[in-house]
Amino acid sequence: MEILNILYIIASFLAEMPVIYVLLAVITALVIWLIVENLKSRKTNFGFGSKNNTLALATFNKINLITLFYDFSYQLVGMNEMAQKHFFELNLLEELNSKPLDEVFTNTNLLNYLDELLVKDTPQKFRLNIKGTDKIHHYDATLFSADDTKDISKKIVLILHETTEMQEEIAEKEHRLTKMQEEHIQLVADKKDTEDQKVELEKAFKHSSKHHIQLQKALLENERQRKQLQEAVELINKQKEELKNANEEIKHHARMKEIFFANTSHEIRTPLNAIIGFTNLLIQMSPSQKQLAYLRNIKASGDNLLIVLNDILDFSKIEAGKMTFENISFLLTEQIDYLINTMQVKADERNLELKHYVDPNLPEVLIGDPTRLNQILMNLIGNSIKFTESKGVVELRVSEKRRSETEVEMKFEVKDNGIGISKEKISRIFNSFTQAEDETTRKYGGTGLGLAIVKQLVELQNGEIFVSSEVGKGSVFTFYLPFTIGHFSSIKRQSANTENQLKQPENIRLLLAEDNKINRQLAIDTIKNWEDKIKIEVAENGKQVIDLLREKSFQMIFMDIQMPEMDGIEATKYIREDMPYEVKNIPIIAMTAHALKNERDHFIEVGMDDYISKPFAPEILTHKITFYASDEIQEKVKNGEKFKSILDKFENSESELKTYAPKSEKGDYQYIDLSYLEKIYKGDYKRIQKILRMYLASVQNEIDEVARSYEKGDYDVTRARSHALKPKMTYLGCQKLFESAKNIEQTIKQNGNVEPLLNDVNTLVEQWPKVEEEIKTIVNN
Question: pLDDT: is 109 or 416 the higher one?
Fold first, then answer.
């Protein structure tokens, strides 16, 4: 009904229009229809729909071009004879039939070209590559669709033209053209050069007379300069001779100066040593208060004179270039402890607080010159003490600037809150015979050589020194020194036979408190090797110590810190507070693997008199026994009087110490170094084998316990077991295992991050079996 209504409306509309307009509309519609049909006919005839597929293929076979037909899933559906022949020769027919278009041919924008074809139905031209058996083939490609419908029968035509031969031909032609151009340019250049040479030759002929005159002038000038040069050479030779004579005279004066200082040193030191020595003896002879004051003044003056003498001699050595430096192993903390204890006396005299801090992560053994290091620090600390008023603070801080596997650059800071130095005077305080202010010499004394010597000593060891200061607020002296990292096995100390001679050793009874069987045996063997008449009682914990003290008398106690039931600190407190009068004053020496200064100070605070670090050098142990067994100390112990402990300090040998390599007399080993045990047992391998068997029986269990407790998160046990492993690894010369055990203990003790400790735990677990194999080799031999 609606269609009829529409037709009626159209008929009514046409009925009202003029006939000419109706005819024009009909003709226009007819023309449009014919154009559309013509276009469809062209497109369909070029393509190959299902009706004329045979015709299209025949058409493309006549074309001498490689032609491939693809459907819209990019799968091959046909190719012309040219393509068949071409890809058969390349052995690529199977690949073309089995893989889609975008997997056979390569072009980074291939999919974009296909999308452009499908969306806009416009032909695409681009380069394509395909990989053959021996090389890559290159083509110029034309891509278009072959049907005007959008159904499944629509196809993609890919026409290829191989470009290799054409490119070679073009390249050859370009090469020939380039060569011809170069030849042409050369011809032009040769022609121009010929013309230029002709012009120059004409000019040369025209000006030959002028050049001849100039040449004569040049020859005359050359002769004049030659005479001047000869006169200069004669003058230089004369000055050289004069300089040589002056140098000989300087050397002669330097030798005379050196002889003078040597003779003066000897002549001054001899009476000065006598003055200081006899003054010390007189002070010990109970003089009156007035006499004591005089004697102390004499001693102070003598000490000051000795310092001045030493400064002058050192300065003269440096000026003469004869200052030498040792390269020996030393314990850093031991060196600093000795220094601080030495300077504490001067600090106390001026009512100053002397503080120090040593970074616990620093290497324990360094190789360098400890004597010169001590000289530098004593000079700087001495200056700080001298120029700081009463109740002030002087502080030494030791840390590291950088470290490699074998070397460490140490940073030393000496800080005070003394009088300070003005900015304009800082630049000259390191000059010889110079002090910051003129009144300083009058008020505080001194030669002005100290800092000059310090600067020279630092720089001669490849170090640097700096100072920052503010008047009225104090100064900070900072210097850096490089050292080689050493090992415990490289520590060699002088024998102290003259000092370590005991009187009536058979009357000495020691109490050794040590729960570790191996450490206990090492201590006993060390003492017995030195003096076998000494009697030694053993306790495995603090309770046994107290029980033995109630039953027997002892001259001293060597007390381990970490023991079961009652540790060394608890036992010491009990002895000092609750034991009878005749026992509570007994010397107690801590035997500890703790290396931190604040921990050692804590042992002294709880009542211990001294400490010895494990692993210990035999000379240190025997020296302490000699000292605390002396009549003087034992008399004070009996009377309940206070006595001063000795410092854990031995002078290093003056000769250069040899660093032990990880080798033993019984053979070469990769993981152990028996030099420490050889030293203790004096090369007695039967006794060394006994200790090694004890290691084989116990160490593996301790390492297993470290690993288990770490895995469970029981870090107190991990720390304790690692602490026990440290001295054992040192005695065996296992530096790597020692460092791992030390790192585990210190990190846990300082509440550090425990996750990275897994590497150290794994090092213990993985390395010990290798150490064990080498120990078995020694034991079985």
Answer: 416
Nearest to 297 by CA among 270, 275, 268, 266: 275
Residue 687: pLDDT band with limits 50, 70, 90:
confident
Residue 662 gets the label, from left (phi > 0), alpha (psi -120 to 50) or beta, of: beta
| pLDDT tens-place string over residues 605-634 | 888 888 887 766 677 788 888 888 888 888
Dihedral sign, Cα of residue 286, residue 290, residue 295, residue 300: positive
Q: What is the DSSP letter of 507?
A: G
pLDDT above 60: residue 159: yes
The CA-to-CA distance between both ends of the chain, in Å, stands at: 122
* Nearest Cα to Cα of residue 447 among 379, 388, 504, 521: 379
Contact between 329 and 366 (Cβ < 8 Å): yes
Q: Please say whether the beta carbons of 65 and 57 come within 8 A.
A: no
CA distance 85 to 667: 78
Q: Which token pair is 714?
A: 């029981």
| Residues listed for the chain | 781
Number of H helices, E strands in the chain: 27, 19
Peptide bond into 615 cis (omega under 30): yes
Burial 317-328 (b: 16+ CB within 10 A, else e): bbeeeebeebeb
Two tokens at 565?
Answer: 């039931």
Q: What single letter denotes the amino acid at residue 460? A: L
The continuous run of DSSP H or E covering 615 comes out as: none
Residues 55 and 58: their CA atoms lie apart, in Å, by 5
Which DSSP helix (H) or strand (E) runs through 485?
Answer: strand 474-485
Distance CA(735)–CA(275), nearest Å, equals: 48
- How far is residue 594's CA from residue 56's CA, in Å, rounded to a whole number? 97
Query: For residue 261, what is the enclosing H or E element?
Result: helix 208-283
pTM: predicted TM-score of the whole model, two decimal places: 0.36
Residues 6+ apart with CB under 8 A from 774: 669, 670, 671, 672
Closest CA to 101 of 148, 49, 139, 135: 139
The 10s digit of each residue's pLDDT in 65-94 is 888 888 878 888 888 888 888 888 888 888
**DSSP assignment string, 292-314:** HHHHHHHHHHHHHHHHHHHHHHH
**Rounded-to-integer distance, Cα 143 and Cα 603, Å:** 92
User: Structure tokens of 598?
Assistant: 């604040």
Cite the DSSP H helix spans in 136-207: 164-206
DSSP state letter for 506: G
Which residue matches tokens 């107190």? 716
What gap in Å lies between CA 440 and CA 383, rounded to an integer? 12
User: Hey, what's the torsion of the CAs at 12, 15, 21, 22, to 10 degrees?
Assistant: 80
For the sheet with 588-592, list strands across it.
535-539, 509-513, 556-560, 588-592, 610-613
State the amino acid at position 65 in one-letter form. L
Any idea what DSSP says for residue 495?
A: -
Q: How far is CA 545 from the centre of its chain?
A: 46
Left (φ > 0), alpha (ψ -120 to 50) or beta: where does 354 sit? beta
CA distance 717 to 709: 6
d(CA 196, CA 211): 20
Number of Cβ within 10 Å of residue 397's Cβ equals 16
- Spatial neighbors of 116 by CB under 8 A, at least 6 apart, are 122, 124
Each as own residue / partner, the long-range contacts of residues 86-89 (CB below 8 Å, 24 or more positions apart, any chain) are: 86/162
Instruction: Decide if 458 contacts 496 (C-beta within 8 A).
Output: no
Cβ(476)–Cβ(467) below 8 Å: yes
